[in-house]
Amino acid sequence: xxxxxxxxxxxxxxxxxxxxxxxxxxxxxxxxxxxxxxxxxxxxxxxxxxxxxxxxxxxxxxxxxxxxxxxxxxxxxxxxxxxxxxxxxxxxxxxxxxxxxxxxxxxxxxxxxxxxxxxxxxxxxxxxxxxxxxxxxxxxxxxxxxxxxxxxxxxxxxxxxxxxxxxxxxx
Length: 171
Description:
Elements: H1 3-6, H2 10-33, H3 41-63, H4 67-96, H5 109-115, H6 118-127, E1 138-139, E2 142-143, H7 144-164
Antiparallel strand pairs: 1-2
Helix pairs in contact: 2-3, 2-7, 3-4, 3-7, 4-7
C-alpha cells in the first residue's frame, strides 16, 4: 500500500486535523475549568500554537487545495506548529531542571500583557517561571508539554503527507 492509498482525501484530512485541534483546546479548557489546573504562561503559548494550526487546517479544508495549495498550507502549518513545538521543547527543558535551577514564579500572563510591552512580556514568558516546572498532570509518563510536542510533530508530518495525496480518479 502506498501513502496515497493510506491517507484520506485532502479535504476530510484537513477537517479531521482541525477537529483534533479543537478537541485539544476543549480538553485544555476542561482541565483548566473543571479539574482546576491553572495553565502556566508556556501552556498558554502552546494553546496559541494549537489554535493557529487549527485555523490553518480549517482554512485548508474549506479551500480544498490542489498540490500547490497543499504545499502552501503545509509550510504555514510548519511555521505555526513549529512555534508550538519550540515552546513545548522549552517547557520540557524547564520541567527537567533540578528544583534549585527552576526560575522563580512570576506574574501571570494576563498581568504581563496588561503592564508590559508585548515584546518584553513574550521574552519574560519564554524565560519560563516556577509554575512552568510543575508536573502535576501526566499521562503514560509524559507531561502535557510532552504530549503537545508529539501532537505538533504529528500535525507537521500530516500536513506534509497531504502534499503527496493525489485526488481520487473519476471513472
